[in-house]
Design a protein that fits this description.
Helix content is 62%, strand content 14%. Strand 2 and strand 3 form a beta hairpin. The protein has a three-stranded antiparallel beta sheet, with helices on both faces. It is globular. It has 86 residues and is an alpha+beta fold.
Amino acid sequence: MNLQEQILEELSEQMHSAVDFEILTDVLCRFGWQKVDLERFANNRHAVDITTWCQDNVKGNWKRNGCKFVFEDVGDAVNFTLRWKC
């Protein structure tokens, strides 16, 4: 596989993952989950800080893909929003 094919394969996988997460998020939101989108991460450390915060503080189930998060518990979504969007 040449470089161009590798790049196309990687981009295809990223697009597939993003579409799958959007579908999953839509289904979960129909069951009462809350979606929170962040604008962007300041840097890789910021992304790690947010993930660590979620692991330490979120009580219910949660999922993320890039800057998109979805929380089972409304309180978790509110706390996340207050901590990371304000």
